[in-house]
From TrEMBL:
Lineage summary: Bacteria, Bacillati, Bacillota, Bacilli, Bacillales
Record domain ABC transmembrane type-1: where: 36-317
Source species, domain of life: Bacteria
Presence of keyword Nucleotide-binding: yes
Name this protein carries in UniProt: ABC transporter ATP-binding protein
InterPro entries in the record: AAA+_ATPase (IPR003593), ABC1_TM_dom (IPR011527), ABC1_TM_sf (IPR036640), ABC_transporter-like_ATP-bd (IPR003439), ABC_transporter-like_CS (IPR017871), P-loop_NTPase (IPR027417), Type_1_exporter (IPR039421)
Compartments reported by the entry: Cell membrane
Topology versus the membrane: Multi-pass membrane protein
Length: 594
């Protein structure tokens, strides 16, 4: 998967095909009844609206010359009713179609969100998250009008066109044919601008996505930005990104707005043409009333045509968004269950890496022939320089990525052959900077097992020594925390995530130990909490504390994706090899908090 960043346009992996549009229409199916009702309302409205010029013709040609005041009043009455009917129909149409539009949007968003929950780490590794966000929020929004009003308008505009042409033919066939003279010119204009417009909107969607990615990244990194006083520099970058968006927008609308004035100019020209022809034939072939009514219909004729032109524009614009939306929905998760996958039975916790080779990119080798065996209940400490591959090893155990060669077995079963949720359910993963969701502390702990009772949550918190600090808070377990837990200290976040993992009661525990220095009280609580967490589980710890490493059943010393040394702290210290050197190196002594 190609990697992308905020200033690089994304390549389109699945360009627009007509089937995409059909698929989009599929989202309207559940709203069929409302759509039919709206079409009916719109047909009534346009019928009532279209009758106007014909009533004027009757008034000028028959009622006024005949001095028929009653007839004239009746025509005025019919006109009034027609206007009221049009207004009422429009009102209900707007209400119904807003419901339909929002319903469809919600449905597409649900599909996108469900898909995003399934996509593997590699998908998120490969692009800025702001570019994913823009698809779910902005692109979907852009479709709403097309789907709700656009399609209904198209149907009613086609209906109006047919009725208008019908009235025009009834009034004068020859003039009707002359009025159509502008058509071929319009067809040529549409043909010429179509491709340019499509490219312009694709470019615009890319620039919008880039801008979103940069804003998202800037918000996430705001603390670092302010700490390093990078505001001015960031503003310059933002101006560049936003400037490209603005230029793309200007280009896209310049092309788009060629269509409307073209239609207006053609319509004005043909109307003038009809006036010239019509006026010269008044009294011979055509009456004044007929000419006025005919021109009235001609103006009306170009209006739905302009609307259809705009609908066409909207489709072209929407294509650029649809391509991205369906590309995301169709993205195949890199990690999928084997068709013959079996449910992993409750495991004891034996883990084996057999000659595992792995790289994030196709040609890359991050792990090179990793081979080791862990017995149930063992604690494995992974140590080594930064970037040596420790996190990568533990990521493979939960099958966040697939190995390129070799096998990972749990209780003797290759993890590639088991159902992924049944595997992950038995794994407890705790990252160095554990994620805290917005909500209460209770909710955050319960994330480990959604059906846990309050008592179970509190019991887990007590076991990992988190209860003391939680009960000291004003609202205790009901204290609201922000997204990412910004109201909590890093030690407190760690303790909450210990409780979360303990509640899930996994057989295998994967833990990236925090390196941040914390106060002695929390440090002691963390150590005690950790001891309770490890009890009776197979645990992999990317260890930074000497105390954790010393207590481990086995230490794996990793360098450049290979295991260089394996053994207990005593064995490896005696060996005076890489591990011993690392322990004695100044940087590591500091890191392990000795
Ligand atoms: N998502 C990723 N995509 C591509 N390369 C990655 C990814 N994550 C890590 N790497 C690369 O894989 C190598 C091993 O990284 P890993 O995170 O496993 O190291 P580590 O030993 O855990 O380091 P640290 O102690 O700093 O956390 C590094 O060279 C890193 O650049």
């Amino acid at each position: 998967m190609a990697r992308n960043k905020f200033d690089v346009d994304e390549e389109l992996e699945s360009p627009f095909r007509l089937v995409h549009f059909k698929r989009l229409l599929g989202y309207l199916t559940p709203h069929k009844k409302q759509m039919i009702l709206t079409v009916f309302l719109m047909l009534m409205a346009s019928g009532a609206n279209l009758i106007g010029p014909y009533l004027i013709k009757l008034a000028i040609d028959e009622k006024i010359p005949g001095n028929d005041m009653l007839g004239l009043a009746m025509l005025a009455g019919i006109y009034l009713i027609a206007i009221i009917v049009t207004g009422l129909c429009m009102k209900y149409r707007i209400r119904i179609m807003s419901q339909v539009g929002q319903g469809v949007i919600q449905h597409i968003r649900e599909d996108l969100f469900t898909q995003l929950q399934k996509l593997s780490f590699s998908y998120y590794d490969s692009r800025p998250h702001g570019k994913i966000l823009v698809r779910v929020v902005n692109y979907v929004n852009s479709l709403s009008d097309l789907l709700s009003n656009g399609i209904i308008n198209l149907i009613t505009d086609l209906f109006s066109l047919t009725v208008i042409v019908g009235f025009m033919i009834v009034i004068d066939v020859k003039l009707t044919l002359m009025a159509m003279a502008g058509f071929p010119i319009l067809a040529i204009i549409i043909f010429v601008i179509k491709n340019a417009q499509r490219r312009a909107w694709q470019d615009l969607s890319n620039k919008q996505s880039n801008m979103n990615a940069y804003i998202h990244e800037s918000i996430n990194g705001i603390k670092v930005t302010q700490a390093f006083i990078r505001e001015e520099e960031n503003k310059k970058i933002f101006n560049e990104v936003a400037g490209s968006y603005r230029s793309s927008w200007m280009k896209a609308v310049r092309i788009q707005f060629l269509l409307s004035p073209s239609i207006e100019n053609i319509s004005a020209l043909t109307v003038s043409f009809i006036y010239v022809i019509g006026i010269s034939s008044i009294g011979e072939e055509i009456t004044v009333g007929s000419l006025i009514a005919f021109v009235g219909y001609m103006w009306m004729f170009w209006m739905p045509l302009a609307n259809i032109g705009n609908f066409y524009n909207a489709i072209i614009n929407a294509m650029a968004y649809l391509e991205r939306i369906f590309e995301t929905i169709d993205e195949k998760p890199a990690m999928i269950n084997d068709p013959h996958a079996v449910i992993l039975p409750t495991i004891k916790g034996k883990v084996e890496f057999e000659d595992v080779v792995f790289g994030y990119e196709r040609e890359e080798k991050i792990l090179d022939h990793i081979h080791f065996k862990v017995n149930p209940g063992d604690t494995i400490a992974l140590v080594g320089a930064t970037g040596s591959g420790k996190t990568t090893i533990v990521s493979l155990i939960s099958r966040f990525y697939d190995v390129k060669r070799g096998q990972i077995k749990i209780d003797g079963i290759d993890i590639k052959t088991v159902n992924i949720p049944s595997l992950r359910k038995q794994m407890g993963i705790m990252l160095q900077d554990p994620f805290i969701f917005s909500g209460t502390i209770m909710d955050n702990i319960r994330y480990g097992r959604l059906d846990a009772t309050d008592e179970e949550v509190i019991k887990a918190a007590k076991a990992v020594q988190a209860h003391t600090f939680i009960s000291r808070m004003k609202d205790g377990y009901q204290t609201e925390v922000n997204e990412r837990g910004t109201r909590l200290s890093s030690g407190q976040r760690q303790l909450i995530s210990f409780a979360r993992v303990l509640l899930a009661n996994p057989r295998v525990l994967i833990l990236d130990e925090a390196t941040s220095s914390i106060d002695t009280e929390t440090e002691l609580a963390l150590q005690k909490g950790l001891e309770n967490l490890l009890l009776g589980r197979t645990s992999f710890i990317i260890a930074h504390r000497l105390s954790t490493i010393q207590k481990a059943t086995k230490i794996l010393f990793i360098e450049k994706g290979r295991i260089l040394e394996e053994g207990t702290h005593e064995e490896l210290t005696k060996k005076k090899g890489h591990y011993w050197k690392l322990c004695n190196s100044q940087s590591y002594s500091l890191e392990i908090g000795s």
